[in-house]
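Tutorial handout. Part one gives the primary structure; part two gives the three-dimensional structure as C-alpha cells.
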Amino acid sequence: MADDLLVIIPTRGRPQAVMSLVRAWHETGATADLLFAVDNDDPELDAYKREAAKFMKGGQVRFVFGKRLRLCGTLNQQAVKAAKKYRYLAFMGDDHRPRPAAMPWDARIRECLSGGPGIVYGNDLLQGEAMATAVAMTSDIVATLGYMAPSVLTHLCLDLVWLDWGKGVGRITYLDDMVIEHLHPAASKADLDQGYEECNSPEQVSADSAAYYDYRDNGGLDADLAKLRKLVEEGS
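Part two.
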C-alpha cells in the first residue's frame, strides 16, 4: 500500500548508492515510498537493474527507467505523475543520506506540511539553512505549477528556486535537527566522479546560473509566486 509521501531520486552512474541509501533509509524508521529514476542510456544500466531486482515489485522501494532528461527534467517528469497520487513529494540526490533522529525524518515532513501548501527542508551538514538541497513539498504545489522545479534548469540552482518559492509565500520551514547528509566532494565525503564533473563543470554552472537569474528577474518567479499565493489563499 502506497504511503502519502514519495521521495524521488534521479540517479546516474552510481548503482552502488542504491543499497547504501536504502540501508540509511531503513535505519531511520521511514515509511515513505522511494523512487529511483534511472536513465535508459546509463553506462551502469545493468547494475541498476540488478539492484531493482532485489526489491518487491510495487513495494516501498521502486525503480523507473526512461529517457535521459537530466536531473531537473527527470524530477519534473516523475513529480508531475506522482502529484496525482501522493500528498507530499520530496527530492533527494543519490548522494544524500537521511540520518536517525528522535522522530523519523519523513514523519517530521508530514507534521510540518500537514497545515496546507508549503515546503520543508533539513540540514545537509554542508549548506545548512542556506540551501534546500533535499526538499519536500505538498504535491498541490507541483500540480499548480506543472513542475517541481523550473524546466529551464538542468541540474543546478533548483535549491535556490525552492527557497524563493517558500519565502515568497511565507510557507517554508528549515529543520536543523532533520539531518539529510549530503555526501559531496565539497565536504570531502565523496570522490569526484564523472557525474560531479559534468554537473559542476564551468559550462553547466554558467548555463544554470544564467537560467536561474533570468527566471528570477524576468517574470518567471513572479508568475509562479502569483499561482502559489492563490493556492495558499484557497487552502486557508
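Part three, for discussion. The CA atoms of residues 120 and 211 lie 24 Å apart. The beta strands are 5-11, 33-39, 61-66, 88-91, 96-98, 119-123, 135-138, 172-182.
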